[in-house]
Amino acid sequence: MRILLANLAWFLSTLPDALRFWLALGDPAKAQAALAARRRPTRPEDVLLEEPTSGTTGGTKWIPYTEQLRREFMRAVNPWMASVYLRHPGLLLCTHYWSISPYTEVRQPKDGPRRGFAEDREYLGKFRARITGALFPVTVAVAGERDPDRHLLATAKALVTSRRLGLVSVWHPSAFLRLLDFMASHASDLTPDAHLRESLAARRFSDVWPRLKLISCWDAAFAAADADRIRRLFPDVEVEGKGLMATEGVVSFPWFGRRVAAVTSHNLSFEKVDAQSGEPIAGTAVGVEHVELGRLYGVVLMTGNGFTDYRLGDVVECVGFERKTPRLEFRYRAGGTVDLHGEKMHPAFAAEVIAKLEARYGRARFATFSLCADLRGYRLLWETDGGSLPVAEVVETLLAENYHYAHAVNLRQLRPVEVVAVADGIGLWCRATGIPRASAKIPPVSRNVLVLA
Fold it and tell me: Is the distance from CB of 145 to CB of 154 less than 8 angstroms?
């Protein structure tokens, strides 16, 4: 009864925002104008805290977080959750697993707001945070566990005992796959139930969670292969791709299985993309009502923390319309950013790391970060020019200045960086990419996997 009442309260709380969004689908321009009209200016005293995200020219930048911005996020989360409950009414009798990050220290500078949420559920607001006590088998205390291995063990134990688990919501599918791998290899440590231990070891996860209805995860770009693996593990469960959400704001979210522009949460505009370079063109932004089918656009946000004309760096394609509102699919990061598992490795940041290494180890004749063959980590390929080879631990420390990179490594979605000495690095690059040596422009980080043999 407690689970039913908590789910029912959550579902009912989503309906006003879901109705607002449904009405907006027929006239997104009007919805955007209304949103802009009711947004109030952000004052310094409105900033509750700052949330970290990767910068384009530095390791981490801090996004001011206000109550107004939190409400804007919930205007995207609520319609999505309403659509989930309506498609899967059996969830009213089920528990949820929403990924909880391991402990990251909340910092309180001497001047200014604190940095970082103490716990993921703060995003949901006070009302839903109370509800989660009845619905989330993984308790708040797990988020306070500093050790990643103990955090993983506590999470796995809690989920194995939750036979009513109906919804799993994680960001990157590799995080859930890693959890499942851990469960299968540590089955004897997780439960005294012989049948459950056998099911876990055999990876019959449907026997562990017979009520599971929906797995929500990112399934675009590099995450597509991992999302498909989850679909194979759970053939009878809906695996729904998440919309495009960043620390700064929401671009799209799933609405009955389709990713639709978040026209009632943030003000969105869309810059046309240059066909040759693939980069958004400044000064070409159009409103949501002028987005055309089949075209690529760079996303520009105006949000409730005072951001105006904020270029998110993501390129999306309009793949259709929900009534008159665009359906958007993520295509790539502008500016050459590589984002395997949420680490957001921007070329400017990678170049800064290489420059710091050259100052310490001597100039490199060739240096670039490339992907490992299994797409689970990075290799720094380094050709010395009279200096020495950088030490991997030093490189890793510099890369960890990127908050999202450090987080992905901490969750073991990425392995720590490898450092590889190469000879004729430019030739290696040109053979791998098919680019003539005379035209070679070596980026500091790329999506290429360079074969060293």
Answer: yes
Contact 234, 212 (CB under 8 A): yes
Return the SS3 of 63. Answer: strand
**Per-residue DSSP letter, 65:** E
pLDDT in tens, 124-151: 777 777 888 889 998 877 766 778 788 8
DSSP 303: -
pLDDT of residue 164: 95
Distances from the Cα of 106 to the Cα of 50, 113, 116, 249, angstroms: 10, 11, 5, 21
Distances from the Cα of 26 to the Cα of 45, 147, 206, 323, angstroms: 37, 49, 40, 6
Q: In the structure encoding, which two tokens stand for residue 416, read together?
A: 């720590």
Looking at residue 436, its pLDDT comes to 65
CB 246 within 8 A of CB 76: no
- CA-closest candidate to residue 340, choices 366, 311, 377: 377
Burial class (CB in 10 A: 0-12, 13-18, 19+), 453: exposed
Q: Are 395 and 357 in contact (CB under 8 A)?
A: yes
Are 340 and 375 contacting, i.e. CB atoms less than 8 angstroms apart?
A: yes
Ordered DSSP codes for 352-412: HHHHHHHHHH--EEEEEEEE-TTSSSEEEEEEESSS-PPPHHHHHHHHTTSHHHHHHHHTT
Asked if residues 206 and 165 have their Cβ atoms less than 8 Å apart, the reply is no
Query: What percent of the chain is predicted at pLDDT more than 70?
Result: 90
pLDDT at residue 121, as a whole number:
64
pLDDT digits (tens, 9 = 90+) for 396-438: 999 999 988 998 998 888 999 999 999 888 888 888 877 766 5
What is 71-123 written as a DSSP string? HHHHHHHHHHHHHHHHH-GGGGG-EEEE--PPP---B--SSS-EES-SSGGGG
Alpha-carbon distance of 279 to 313, in angstroms, equals 9
CB 271 within 8 Å of CB 284? yes
Beta strands in 183-237 (DSSP E): 214-217
Amino acid at 325: T
Please tell me whether residue 41 adopts helix, strand or coil conformation.
coil
- Whether the Cβ atoms of residue 428 and residue 379 lie closer than 8 Å to each other: no
Name residue 377's amino acid. Answer: G
pTM, to two decimals: 0.80
Q: Specify whether the CB–CB gap between 69 and 304 falls below 8 A.
A: yes
Q: How far is CA 41 from the centre of its chain?
A: 28
- When comparing pLDDT for 448 and 154, which is higher? 154
